[in-house]
Amino acid sequence: MSNASGNPKTALITGITGQDGSYLAELLLEEGYFVHGIVRRSSTFNTDRIDHIYTDPHNADARLFLHYGDLTDGQNLTNLVLNIEPDEIYNLGAQSHVRVSFDNPVYTVQTTAVGALNVLEAARQLNRKKPTRVYQASSSEMFGDVLETPQTEKTPFQPQSPYACAKVYAFHQTVNYRHAYDLFACNGILFNHESPRRGETFVTRKITRAATRIKLGLQEKLYLGNLDAKRDWGYAKDYVRGMWLMLQHDTPDDYVLATGETYTIRQFLDYTFEHLELDWKDYVETDPRYFRPTEVDLLLGDYSKAKNVLGWEPETSCKELAQLMVDYDLELARNEAVRATIAQGKSA
Ligand code: NAP
Ligand code: GDD
């Protein structure tokens, strides 16, 4: 992929260490980009999801570069953007856990709302000397207590959590920067998307990790909250392609990415445990800690616009998604069981 000057394109990804950031980085490298990612300093390594694509930056053929930064540090973001001069900026960084946003509302707003504004402001400054394009990771969570079903780009928002309120702010600022400054800025309104790289405290991965550990005798019970909520679950790998397509289009716009199907947590439990020839009702118990002060009961997306304009379609069903996550997690559980056996042998 070349830019207007005929050079390979350069992209900057915030949240590169997260689920989506890692898949997007892989896709952009495959497309021939130079990829820069922002990572947070932490006391333990937080680059597991991208270690397999990272090479020594001193190598002549290195194409992935990491920089310390934080969405709450606007000056740092602006310096990075002005130095790197990316053709495309993907703002995927966020405090992305809805339940946690009730515990940390101010931090969530600083990262997820003001952080997005910091990215837009940095992009606006770069755009004055070199054209750049911005993708903002907006969320179906913004529809909240939904006002219509299925939800489209025209459905009004009714957010139900500090996280969702922060994402609504970032959505509107992205549209505002597009109108006010002629910045090429797009919102992807993505419905839930999962993968073997999904964080282990989101419900699908929590289920597939626990079920596979139960299968191998490493865990006895799985504690969950509301099993009746419905989600439109897709595969993260399919969705990052949609993000990229939004920034390749001639004009900036906002798009829903979804599967057009919705399932309860119970149905996801069915798909997971059936694949392991187990019955989840023997293992799952309710823990009120996992209920939320306000819940989003139903999400179901209509992705017609993305299909018609971008040619994007999801390729993985919810059942296939559950099965590929189980297959991956079963391997992790097997390795854990082997390590436990070796440790037992050593102590005997
Ligand atoms: P994720 O796995 O939780 O990744 C979040 C990323 O943001 C991580 O790299 C994290 O870094 C980084 N981050 C958090 N706080 C930061 C800060 N203050 N400064 C810089 N980076 C920070 O999320 P994901 O599932 O990949 O989702 C990507 C984006 O899409 C998020 O904005 C999320 O809200 C949004 N979204 C996700 C979904 C979904 O279903 N997955 C749906 C709609 C929208 P660490 O690794 O250091 O924690
Ligand atoms: N996390 C979690 N843990 N959720 C549970 C549990 C549990 O033990 N038990 C039931 N649930 C229910 C939640 O109440 C919610 O209704 C549903 O499972 C999905 O929860 P999550 O997997 O945490 O995802 P989410 O829908 O709240 O948010 C995700 O999707 C959004 C897009 O709609 C996140 O990825 C957000 O960042 C994203 O914007």
TrEMBL record:
Instruction: Please give the catalytic activity noted in the UniProt record.
Output: GDP-alpha-D-mannose = GDP-4-dehydro-alpha-D-rhamnose + H2O
Q: Please state every residue range assigned to the domain named NAD(P)-binding.
A: 12-325
Q: Which UniProt keywords apply?
A: Lyase, NADP
> What processes in GO biological process is this protein linked to?
'de novo' GDP-L-fucose biosynthetic process
A Pfam family matched by this chain, by name?
GDP_Man_Dehyd
GO MF terms here are: GDP-mannose 4,6-dehydratase activity; NADP+ binding
Q: What is its EC number?
A: 4.2.1.47
**InterPro entries per the UniProt record, alphabetical:** GDP_Man_deHydtase, NAD(P)-bd_dom, NAD(P)-bd_dom_sf
Q: What cofactor does this chain's UniProt record say it requires? A: NADP(+)
**Classification via SUPFAM superfamilies:** NAD(P)-binding Rossmann-fold domains (SSF51735)
Organism domain of life: Bacteria
- What is the stated purpose of this protein? Catalyzes the conversion of GDP-D-mannose to GDP-4-dehydro-6-deoxy-D-mannose.
Fetch the HAMAP family from UniProt. Answer: GDP_Man_dehydratase (MF_00955)
State the similarity comment: Belongs to the NAD(P)-dependent epimerase/dehydratase family. GDP-mannose 4,6-dehydratase subfamily.
What name does UniProt use for this protein? GDP-mannose 4,6-dehydratase
Which species is this UniProt entry from? Answer: Stieleria neptunia
